Amino acid sequence: MKSLTSFARFVVFGGGTGVLSSLAVPLLAVLMPWTLSNALVTIASTVLCTELHARYTFRTGRRAGLRRHWQSAGSAAAAYAATSVAVFALHAIQPTPGMLTEQLVYLSASGLAGVGRFVILRLFVFATGTDHESANTARTTGTVNTPNRPKTANTAKTTDTNLPTKATTIPRPRRTPVTTGGLTAALSPS
Fold first, then answer.
1. CA-to-CA distance for 69 and 112, rounded, in angstroms?
2. Model confidence over 104-141: pLDDT tens digits?
3. CB 14 within 8 A of CB 50
4. Distance (Å, rounded) from C-alpha 54 to C-alpha 125?
């Protein structure tokens, strides 16, 4: 359910920004080449979306930070490539498409790329500690610990490293007394 609500927020913020971007690209393309206008709008919308996703979509509780911006930029580069290839393919098939056709192709490519971006951002860029723990637990034990399901013997359990642990006594072998003689006796002051 958590993934579904975060996907809904992703669609609202990412889709809203995408629609605004799709309007900005052709307007800027009047002043410059389409590829350059797409690149500029993609960079600006990626920075904006990364901040929105950090604060609201995935609710990290803080700004995205430089590392997350770079990671998000990688997924945005793939989205940029997808939209560019789609529009170039359209222009190869139909040299002078109408603005509506170009928008439909651009938005379709953006939508498909957006679903891929959500998966990458959710699983890698904005994954919280509990997401990592669940993923690691599932990998090592083959089960997933879900909060709504009662714990059973087959449910993976995570340990809290901040809790005090019970000391374990390791039995030591019994030593026999050593007599002082030989070299020890020679070295000791008399």
1. 21
2. 998 899 888 888 888 888 888 888 655 444 444 444 44
3. no
4. 9
